[in-house]
Input
Amino acid sequence: MKSDNKIIIVEPSPMVSAGLAQYFDDTRQLSVVSQLDSVDRLEEKLAAYNPEILIINPLLTAYGDGSLTKLLRDYPGMVTVALVTSYVDKNILKQFKDVIEMNDNKQKVVSKIFSLLSDTSSTQEKNENVELSNREIDVLVALAKGMTNKEISDKLFISVHTVITHRKNIIRKTGIKSVSGLTVYALLNNLVDESEIYEV
Amino acid sequence: MKTVFSENMKMADLIIGNSKLLLTFQRFGMDLGFGDRSIGEVCRRNNVSPQFFLMICNVYCNDDFSPSSEDIKSVDPKTLINYLLESHKYYINERLPHIEEHLNHIVNACIPKDGHTLSRFFQEYKNEVVDHFLYEEQHVFPYIQQIADDNVKTDYKIKVFHENHTNIEDKLSDLLNILVKYLPADVFPKERVEIALDISELSADLMSHTLIEERILIPFVRSLED
Output
C-alpha cells in the first residue's frame, strides 16, 4: 500500500466532515486532500487530485440528473464510500463499495478504509490509468476544434480552472504538449473529424 | 559535474568522447582530420577564439555549466552571431528537409486522413521554426551588432527577446510521441525508427541551441546594455 493515500470528503455538515478528516489525519497514512460541502466543485477536485477514496453523503447523490454517476465513471480506480448520516434507501447504498455510519467509531472507520485500499491495490494496477476519461476527451475535442479555455468552460459548464486541470492531465497522459499535436492525436483516434477542424 | 574542457585537450579526443559535438565544429568552419592537434591549435588555424569555442562545447556537454562573466565579456559578437546563423542554416536546409523526406514516405503509406493530419502538423511546425529563426535574424542579431558597435540605444531590449523566446522543441517532441505511440503499427515500422532517431537528435541539438542563447547570448547582450 502506498503511504500517501488521498481522500476527498463530500459532506454538508462541517462538523461531521472535520471529525472524519481528523480520524484519517491521525493515521498519518491517509491524507484528506479536499473537503467539500456539495458536489459543485467535485469535478475540479477529482481532476486535480485523482484520489484513491471518495467519501460522499448519498443524500447529495440521490437526486440529480445522473451527471454525478457519469463523472464517477471517469475514475474507475477510485473507491466510493457512502457516508450515511440519516436513513438512506438500501438500493442507493448498493452503488457504493462500503458504508460509513454515524455511530461507527474511529477504529472501525479507519480499518474500513485500509481494507478497501488493500483490496484495490492488489486487484488493480493502481488507478494511474493513462486512458483519457470521458471528460478529458470532451476537453480534448474542444481544443482540437480551436476553442479557448473560456469557450470550453462555457460549453461544458465547468470553471476555467477545471479546464486547465483537465488540460494538464491530458498532457500528462498523452505526452503531447502542443494544441496542434493534440489535434493530431484526436484525429488519429477518430475523436473528431477533419471537416470539424479545418475549413476544406 | 562533468569535466569542463580545456584548450590543451586534443580536438579529436574531445569530439570522439562527446558525440553531441559532432554538430558544432562545422559551424565554425572546421573540418574533420584533426590528427593530434589540440583544441587551441585547431581554433587558431580557423581564426576562432578558443575561449569561445570551449564555451560552446561546455554548454553543449554540461547541463549545469554557466560561463563566467569574464568569458561572457570576451565574446566577439560577430563570431557568436555567425555561429547561431550557421546553426539555423543547418536546421532549415539540412535537418528539417531530411526529416520531411522520411515523413513523406510515411504520409503516403497512411490512410489519407492520417496522412493529411501528419503532413499538416509538420508543415505547421516547419513554418513555426522558420518564423522563429527569421525573427532572430531580422531583429535580434542586427540589434546585437548595433549595440556592440556603437552603443546606439534603441527601444528594443534583449529582455523583449527573452520573454518572447518561443519554444520550438515542444512540437518536435509531440511528433516523436505521435510516431512512437499513436500512429498505427503497420505503417513503415523501419522508417519510423529512422525518423524517430533523427528527431531525437534534432531535439537534443535544438535544446543545446536554446541553452547557448540563454547562457551566452542573453547574458552577453545584457552586459552591453548595462
